[in-house]
Automatic annotation (TrEMBL):
The gene is LOC105356811. Pfam families: adh_short (PF00106). The keyword Oxidoreductase applies. This is Dehydrogenase/reductase (SDR family) X-linked. Keywords: Oxidoreductase. One of its GO terms (molecular function) is oxidoreductase activity. It comes from Oryzias latipes. Belongs to the short-chain dehydrogenases/reductases (SDR) family. InterPro entries: NAD(P)-bd_dom_sf, SDR_fam. The keyword Chaperone does not apply.
Length: 323
């Protein structure tokens, strides 16, 4: 952690820093940074915040005065991210904590050590993700896309939910922001083969995990509203963003993608804009966010499927509702 931000030391709103680390030629897909409210006194966790979109979310939240914890599995990358942010802004309050979303044990340890610090938790950004990875399993036997992108975040959120509920009681409602993708729209949740054991397609597995995030987000939001808790949960599509996420593409496709991405994809800073809008907007009411705002029409949510997925996830993780 590099420094503490004196509370309420600055104006109520601040423009997002537009000094993106690399220049963008993405003239078709550009999202401009916007004005966001100060976040002094707020605490945020961003998973996978060591690089890519997550890094930019961390950087901007810290710049707005929030205390930000990067949850990631690569310590070197995480600490380098903290150093870079602190070099840029001596006041930034950022730290790295180890979190491997492919391990139930690591998620429990991360949540436990965070709770022991008696900090509030105002914003949880479930951002970490993998895409098109070769067939593989988490330490607990779940298909990698499903396990890391969805189930790991489900568990993390569940373990931190009481803290989110209590933190949302005063001031702004707490937020859970699930970084999904437009790929959710072609996803299918196969409850009878959730771990793709009978048939594996990396593409289908990624899309399923992103649909599962949207579904989880919607169900959680409704549960929180029903229970009268001031916790909003939303799903976000950051757009096509030029990051390392595409590193598992088939090599010729990867080479083509690199050229196309430099021309047409968003920069990570632009990709972070919608995530930040959902995390910080004062009238966030859940839903699905893309292109910097809440979509008027949500994707086709299916309450029956949402409930089934929720119950299956609880069973897979050995959780009970009254925990
Ligand atoms: N880029 C796009 O075009 C795009 C489009 C739609 C949605 N998204 C979503 O945006 C999110 C961020 O992706 P990105 O584009 O910024 O990709 P990225 O640069 O590859 O970042 C992914 C982050 O997730 C972390 N991560 C992966 N596996 C993990 C694990 N088991 N435990 C903890 N952290 C783990 C990575 O850290 P490691 O160093 O440990 O791997 C990295 O920090 C993802 O959820 C992705 O699906 C991206």
């Amino acid at each position: 952690m590099c420094a503490f931000v004196p509370p309420a030391a600055v104006a109520a709103v601040a423009p997002l820093s537009s000094s993106a680390p690399s220049p963008s030629w993405s003239w078709l897909n550009t999202l401009h940074p916007t004005v966001m409210p100060r976040q002094n006194g707020k605490v945020a966790i961003v998973t996978g915040g060591g690089r890519g979109i997550g890094y930019e979310v961390v950087r901007q939240l810290a710049r707005l005065g929030a205390h930000v914890i990067i949850g990631g599995r690569d310590e070197q990358e995480g600490l380098a991210a903290v150093r870079r942010i602190c070099e840029e802004d001596k006041e930034a309050k950022v730290e790295f904590r180890k979190l491997d979303l492919a391990s139930v044990l690591s998620i429990h340890q991360f949540a436990q050590s965070f709770k022991e610090r008696n900090l509030p938790l105002n914003i949880l950004v479930n951002n970490a993700g993998v895409m098109l990875v070769p067939e593989g399993r988490t330490g607990d036997g779940h298909e990698l896309h499903f396990g890391v992108n969805y189930l790991g975040h489900f568990l993390l959120t569940w373990l931190l939910l009481d803290l989110l509920k209590s933190s949302g009681e005063h001031g702004d409602a707490a937020r859970v922001v699930n970084v999904s993708s437009s790929a959710h729209s072609i996803g299918e949740i196969r409850l009878n083969d959730i771990n793709s054991s009978y048939h594996y397609s990396a593409h289908a597995a990624y899309c399923q995990s992103k649909l599962a995030q949207v579904s989880f987000s919607s169900h959680l939001h409704q549960e929180m509203q029903r229970g009268g808790f001031r916790v909003n949960s939303c799903a976000v599509d950051p757009g096509m963003v030029n990051t390392a996420l595409y590193c598992h593409l088939w090599t010729p496709l990867r080479m083509a993608q690199r050229v196309i991405a430099r021309l047409f994809f968003r920069t990570p800073a632009e990709g972070a804009v919608t995530v930040l809008s959902a995390a910080l907007s004062q009238d966030c009411k859940g839903g699905y966010w893309s292109n910097g705002h809440r979509e008027m029409t949500s994707p086709a949510f299916d309450p029956g499927l949402e409930l089934n997925l929720w119950e299956v996830s609880m069973q897979l993780l050995g959780l009970q509702s009254d925990q």
